[in-house]
Automatic annotation (TrEMBL):
It catalyses: tRNA(Gly) + glycine + ATP = glycyl-tRNA(Gly) + AMP + diphosphate. One of its GO terms (biological process) is glycyl-tRNA aminoacylation. Tetramer of two alpha and two beta subunits. Its EC number is 6.1.1.14. NCBIfam families: glyS. InterPro entries: DALR_anticod-bd, Gly-tRNA-synth_bsu, Gly-tRNA-synth_heterodimer. HAMAP family: Gly_tRNA_synth_beta. This is Glycine--tRNA ligase beta subunit. The gene is glyS. It is found in: Cytoplasm. The keyword Transmembrane helix does not apply.
Amino acid sequence: MNKILLVEFLTEELPSKILNKISNEFSNILYKILKKNNFLEKNSFAIPYATPRRLAVSITNVCSISHDKIIRKKILPVSLALNNISKAPTVLLKKKLSNLSKIIGIKLIKLNQLEKNIEKKVEFFFYNHIIKGILLKISLQKILEEVISKLPIPIIMNYQNFNNINNTQKIFCFIRPVRKLLILHGDNIIKINLFGLNSSNKTLGHRFLSKKIIKINSAEQYSDTLNKKGKVIANFQYRKKYIRNLLLKAAGKYKILMPEILLDEVTALVEWPIIHMCRFDKSFLTIPKECLILIMQKYQKYFALKDSNNLCSKFLIVSNLETNNPYFIIKGNEQVLHSRLLDANFFYEQDKKKKLIDRVPLLKNVIYHNKLGNQFERTLRICKISIKISNLLNENSKLVERAAFLSKSDLLTSMVIEFPELQGIIGGYYAYNDGESIEIIKSIKEHYKPCFSGDTLPKNIISIILALSDKLETLVGIWGIGLKPTGDKDPFALRRCTMGILRILIEKNIPLSILELLNNTVNIFKKNIHFNNPTKELLKFIYDRLYTLLNKKKYKFNEIQAIIKKKPDIISNINDKIIAIHSFILLPESKKILSINKRIHNIFKNIDSSFLKNKKIQYELFKKTEEINLYIIIKKIEPKINILYSKGEFFKILKLLIKLYDSTNIYFEKVQIITQDILLKTNRLILIKKLYKLLNIIADLSKLIQ
């Protein structure tokens, strides 16, 4: 009989940052294993539940006995299985059937139990074996043990549980100690033993608001029973939505700062959410707003409020306790925040007494990496890279150098030591306090951007140059001393660093050569005895990241490949190239050009690349009108293409290439390229190589043929 299966682990407090992920994995893994074992129907679905101290899942339409499973085994071709004359089973067939019978655990399979069928024009013998269904109550113990073993738990905890069977303590492993085990199939308890606990239909509600044991009469009533009797909203996503609505209502006229990551964490911390409005002293609003928001959101899990565009002295908290008199809850939270803000204000006022420029020499005392020196040496490298980039872009190198020189000095401030997340941001405030120019202030504030996927980019050109310089110094320096990313490990965030460089170059339309940027940075490290030139490896790494970046924009796979195969050195226009390629493929005439390109590509597959090196077309060797005509049209179109390329008009280039089709097609019909005459063969190969280069000026067209 099909019923809802409910499994709940009642635990000690679960880690809030990963609760939703663990809950979803628990649900997905159990669903997949049940499906694999034929316990589910086509319309079955899982509902995960998660609160600070419970992991649960209910799955609909779970069979009490799994469906029979038919296993079809291919035995042998009939020609090998039967004797040609007598048609009796051969020794090979008998051996095969004997082995299969032992594996399946049945009596010897007979010839008349086999089925003939043709596969790829060959007649085979097949054997169909039916595996009978198994009771859920028998299988569930092993299934749940498998689920537990597959859960992606970052740190496993060992704990003791009392074993009622033999009155002993036993060690168990899980993310947190499990205190109760609830398993229901419909209204029936499935008896199993996990974590030293026997399953039942009983659980507990809210830790403070519901102290009695709660009986769940049926799996279908789980969520409603917990809500009414236990003061628990069990469904994570419903609870999150409920909290969001409560917060918006409580905020009223104020704008609430409600990042998803904070909302997720708060949802994971409460079972019965109650919202309260709190306040802090207005004098603390002189502290940089980023610091105030950071303390409220990250350290206290509070929701900051804005009045128009300015931060106000009110904030919202999500409590896990319902009471008629919330005075002590509100006051307690206000006092905790007051203490944190007192410290922050003290650090801020003390830091302002010393200028950033006076802190720079002290960076000599801060080690960056034992093979790359201290932060002062790093600062000087960033200065040199910044000057080179500013010269390439014809920007004010002195302004850039000043910004680079001051960029790391806030690492020595009390604010950054206490709140590392404020690097750069707090430096911008101190630069303003020191009377630095607006460009320098913004550059120091923004030079770490983008800090994460989807983060905003630095805005003004000085900020962009400093951000590029900082990231290039990190990428080249760390890779050059042999600390490149391996597998999932990337302790120096070089993948994120590379993505930042690529995003800046593309989204801010910075027409700089990737190779030149790398070479300029490598030259700054050359005197370092620990450093090895990583340019070759880095280029491959950069283009791999570029593929990832473009793939996120949902461009077509073959179009991205076509562009990246050319290893474009300047990528500021790469989006325009992909759009042009996409539009070109939609033209009916594009197939003609792709076919011509494929033909040339196949010719050069068998030609040694060094054969044509440093060789030029000799006009006097052209013997046929068709090759002269092709040469003339290439010479005529080439300068037009170069002009259009410099203007970034890539679609016009691709349309212009279509004009080459007729001359090229006739050329291939009338001219034999591979001849016994070496001079003639070479000259013709050089001509089509020139044509091939023109055809693939934007992208490798061979990648567009699927």
